[in-house]
Amino acid sequence: MKVMIPNSTRINRGTHRVDELVEVCKTSDFTDLVVLQETRGEPDGLIICHLPLGPTAYFTLNGAVLRHDLEGGAAPMSEAYPHIILNNLTTELGKRVGNILKCIFPIPKPDTRRIVTFSNDNDHLSFRHHVYSKENGNTTDKVSLYEVGPRFEMRLYQIKLGTLEMKDAENEYVLKPYMNTAHKRTVL
Protein backbone atom coordinates (compact mmCIF):
# COMPACT_ATOMS: atom_id res chain seq x y z
CA MET A 1 0.00 0.00 0.00
CA LYS A 2 2.89 2.37 0.69
CA VAL A 3 4.08 2.02 -2.89
CA MET A 4 0.54 2.24 -4.27
CA ILE A 5 -0.35 5.48 -2.45
CA PRO A 6 2.42 8.02 -3.02
CA ASN A 7 3.29 10.52 -0.33
CA SER A 8 2.22 8.04 2.37
CA THR A 9 3.88 6.73 5.51
CA ARG A 10 3.70 3.08 6.56
CA ILE A 11 3.11 2.35 10.23
CA ASN A 12 2.79 -1.09 11.77
CA ARG A 13 -0.08 -1.00 14.24
CA GLY A 14 1.52 -3.43 16.64
CA THR A 15 -0.12 -3.11 20.05
CA HIS A 16 -1.26 0.49 19.53
CA ARG A 17 -4.96 1.16 20.01
CA VAL A 18 -6.95 2.66 17.15
CA ASP A 19 -7.78 5.85 19.06
CA GLU A 20 -4.04 6.38 19.71
CA LEU A 21 -3.24 5.96 15.99
CA VAL A 22 -5.97 8.40 14.96
CA GLU A 23 -4.76 10.96 17.49
CA VAL A 24 -1.14 10.67 16.30
CA CYS A 25 -2.28 11.06 12.69
CA LYS A 26 -4.34 14.15 13.56
CA THR A 27 -1.49 15.80 15.46
CA SER A 28 0.92 15.00 12.61
CA ASP A 29 -1.46 16.72 10.13
CA PHE A 30 -2.08 13.60 8.05
CA THR A 31 -5.03 13.98 5.68
CA ASP A 32 -6.12 10.33 5.71
CA LEU A 33 -5.62 7.13 7.63
CA VAL A 34 -5.72 3.93 5.54
CA VAL A 35 -5.92 0.66 7.46
CA LEU A 36 -5.30 -2.58 5.58
CA GLN A 37 -6.64 -5.66 7.35
CA GLU A 38 -5.40 -9.15 6.58
CA THR A 39 -6.05 -12.70 7.63
CA ARG A 40 -3.18 -15.19 7.38
CA GLY A 41 -1.27 -12.89 5.04
CA GLU A 42 -4.22 -12.30 2.67
CA PRO A 43 -5.59 -8.73 2.56
CA ASP A 44 -9.33 -8.87 3.25
CA GLY A 45 -10.37 -5.41 4.47
CA LEU A 46 -9.64 -1.76 3.80
CA ILE A 47 -10.66 1.23 5.90
CA ILE A 48 -10.20 4.79 4.65
CA CYS A 49 -10.63 7.49 7.29
CA HIS A 50 -10.45 11.14 6.23
CA LEU A 51 -8.94 13.32 8.94
CA PRO A 52 -9.66 15.32 11.06
CA LEU A 53 -13.48 14.91 10.95
CA GLY A 54 -14.30 11.97 8.67
CA PRO A 55 -15.95 10.27 6.81
CA THR A 56 -14.73 6.71 7.25
CA ALA A 57 -15.37 4.12 4.52
CA TYR A 58 -15.16 0.37 5.12
CA PHE A 59 -14.49 -2.06 2.27
CA THR A 60 -14.10 -5.83 2.00
CA LEU A 61 -11.27 -7.01 -0.26
CA ASN A 62 -11.08 -10.24 -2.21
CA GLY A 63 -9.17 -11.71 -5.13
CA ALA A 64 -5.99 -9.81 -4.25
CA VAL A 65 -3.03 -10.43 -6.52
CA LEU A 66 0.07 -8.76 -5.13
CA ARG A 67 2.90 -7.28 -7.21
CA HIS A 68 5.21 -10.27 -6.84
CA ASP A 69 2.38 -12.69 -7.80
CA LEU A 70 1.59 -11.10 -11.18
CA GLU A 71 1.93 -13.32 -14.22
CA GLY A 72 5.18 -12.51 -15.98
CA GLY A 73 6.34 -10.38 -13.06
CA ALA A 74 5.49 -6.79 -12.32
CA ALA A 75 6.72 -3.97 -14.51
CA PRO A 76 9.01 -1.40 -12.87
CA MET A 77 6.91 1.04 -10.91
CA SER A 78 7.04 4.78 -11.14
CA GLU A 79 7.01 6.86 -7.96
CA ALA A 80 5.01 9.61 -9.72
CA TYR A 81 1.59 10.62 -8.48
CA PRO A 82 -0.96 8.59 -10.50
CA HIS A 83 -3.90 9.71 -12.58
CA ILE A 84 -7.14 8.35 -11.11
CA ILE A 85 -9.83 6.79 -13.31
CA LEU A 86 -13.23 6.36 -11.67
CA ASN A 87 -15.34 4.22 -14.00
CA ASN A 88 -19.11 3.77 -13.64
CA LEU A 89 -19.47 5.58 -10.29
CA THR A 90 -22.48 7.61 -11.43
CA THR A 91 -25.08 7.40 -8.63
CA GLU A 92 -25.00 9.71 -5.61
CA LEU A 93 -23.37 7.00 -3.48
CA GLY A 94 -20.96 6.19 -6.29
CA LYS A 95 -19.88 9.83 -6.50
CA ARG A 96 -19.43 9.89 -2.73
CA VAL A 97 -17.26 6.76 -2.84
CA GLY A 98 -15.30 8.22 -5.77
CA ASN A 99 -14.56 11.37 -3.75
CA ILE A 100 -13.43 9.31 -0.76
CA LEU A 101 -11.11 7.21 -2.94
CA LYS A 102 -9.59 10.03 -4.97
CA CYS A 103 -8.82 12.08 -1.85
CA ILE A 104 -6.15 9.59 -0.71
CA PHE A 105 -4.09 10.30 -3.84
CA PRO A 106 -2.18 13.57 -4.41
CA ILE A 107 -2.84 15.62 -7.55
CA PRO A 108 -0.65 14.29 -10.40
CA LYS A 109 1.40 16.20 -12.92
CA PRO A 110 -0.16 16.18 -16.41
CA ASP A 111 2.68 14.17 -17.95
CA THR A 112 2.74 11.29 -15.44
CA ARG A 113 2.45 7.81 -16.95
CA ARG A 114 0.99 6.06 -13.93
CA ILE A 115 -2.72 5.17 -13.73
CA VAL A 116 -4.91 3.88 -10.90
CA THR A 117 -8.37 2.64 -11.90
CA PHE A 118 -11.44 2.01 -9.76
CA SER A 119 -14.08 0.40 -11.97
CA ASN A 120 -17.57 -0.38 -10.66
CA ASP A 121 -19.39 -3.50 -11.84
CA ASN A 122 -22.54 -4.49 -9.95
CA ASP A 123 -21.42 -2.74 -6.72
CA HIS A 124 -17.97 -4.37 -6.77
CA LEU A 125 -15.03 -2.05 -7.40
CA SER A 126 -12.11 -3.46 -9.33
CA PHE A 127 -8.79 -1.84 -8.48
CA ARG A 128 -6.10 -1.91 -11.17
CA HIS A 129 -2.71 -0.21 -11.24
CA HIS A 130 -0.86 0.42 -14.53
CA VAL A 131 1.93 2.40 -16.12
CA TYR A 132 2.06 3.15 -19.81
CA SER A 133 4.72 4.00 -22.32
CA LYS A 134 4.25 6.01 -25.47
CA GLU A 135 6.40 5.64 -28.58
CA ASN A 136 6.21 7.97 -31.53
CA GLY A 137 6.04 6.25 -34.88
CA ASN A 138 6.10 7.72 -38.35
CA THR A 139 2.32 8.16 -38.62
CA THR A 140 0.86 7.00 -35.30
CA ASP A 141 1.70 6.81 -31.62
CA LYS A 142 2.05 3.39 -30.04
CA VAL A 143 0.90 3.10 -26.43
CA SER A 144 1.79 0.09 -24.29
CA LEU A 145 0.05 -0.59 -20.98
CA TYR A 146 1.80 -2.55 -18.21
CA GLU A 147 0.17 -3.80 -15.03
CA VAL A 148 2.31 -3.09 -11.98
CA GLY A 149 -0.07 -4.40 -9.33
CA PRO A 150 -1.50 -5.00 -6.92
CA ARG A 151 -5.01 -5.76 -8.15
CA PHE A 152 -8.08 -6.65 -6.14
CA GLU A 153 -11.85 -6.41 -5.91
CA MET A 154 -13.42 -4.33 -3.16
CA ARG A 155 -16.97 -3.82 -1.93
CA LEU A 156 -18.22 -0.96 0.19
CA TYR A 157 -20.18 -2.08 3.23
CA GLN A 158 -20.30 1.03 5.42
CA ILE A 159 -19.69 4.78 5.47
CA LYS A 160 -19.61 6.53 8.85
CA LEU A 161 -19.70 10.31 9.19
CA GLY A 162 -16.99 10.38 11.88
CA THR A 163 -13.44 9.14 12.19
CA LEU A 164 -12.32 5.59 12.88
CA GLU A 165 -12.23 5.81 16.68
CA MET A 166 -15.74 7.32 16.99
CA LYS A 167 -17.96 4.42 18.02
CA ASP A 168 -21.16 6.48 18.08
CA ALA A 169 -20.68 8.18 14.68
CA GLU A 170 -23.74 8.29 12.47
CA ASN A 171 -23.92 5.86 9.54
CA GLU A 172 -24.29 7.46 6.14
CA TYR A 173 -24.55 4.11 4.36
CA VAL A 174 -24.72 0.48 5.47
CA LEU A 175 -24.87 -2.46 3.05
CA LYS A 176 -27.92 -4.63 3.70
CA PRO A 177 -27.64 -7.35 1.07
CA TYR A 178 -30.52 -9.47 2.35
CA MET A 179 -33.06 -6.65 2.37
CA ASN A 180 -33.05 -5.97 -1.38
CA THR A 181 -36.50 -6.61 -2.78
CA ALA A 182 -35.83 -5.61 -6.39
CA HIS A 183 -34.53 -8.27 -8.77
CA LYS A 184 -31.45 -6.19 -9.59
CA ARG A 185 -30.57 -2.98 -7.77
CA THR A 186 -27.42 -0.99 -8.45
CA VAL A 187 -26.16 1.09 -5.56
CA LEU A 188 -22.84 2.46 -6.78
Show the helix and strand layout.
Blueprint: H1 18-27, E1 32-39, E2 42-50, E3 56-65, E4 83-87, H2 92-102, E5 114-121, E6 124-136, E7 141-147, E8 151-160, E9 171-174
Parallel strand pairs: 4-5
Antiparallel strand pairs: 1-2, 2-3, 3-8, 5-6, 6-7, 6-8, 8-9
Account of the 3D structure:
By secondary structure, the protein is mainly beta. Helices cover 11% and strands 39% of the residues. The chain is built from two helices and nine strands. Strands 1, 2, 3, 4, 5, 6, 7, 8 and 9 form a nine-stranded mixed sheet that branches. A hairpin with a 5-residue loop joins strand 2 and strand 3. The longest helix has 11 residues. It is globular and about 65 Å long. The mean pLDDT is 88.
Indicate the mean pLDDT: 88
Strand content bin: 35-45%
Major sheet attributes: 9 strands, mixed
| Rg value | 18 Å
Estimated structural class: mainly beta
Percent in helix: 10-25%
- Indicate the low-confidence ranges by residue numbers: none
Summary of the model, kept short:
The chain is mainly β and 188 residues long. The protein has helices spanning 18-27, 92-102, and strands spanning 32-39, 42-50, 56-65, 83-87, 114-121, 124-136, 141-147, 151-160, 171-174.
Keywords:
about 190 residues, mainly beta, 2 helices, about 40% strand
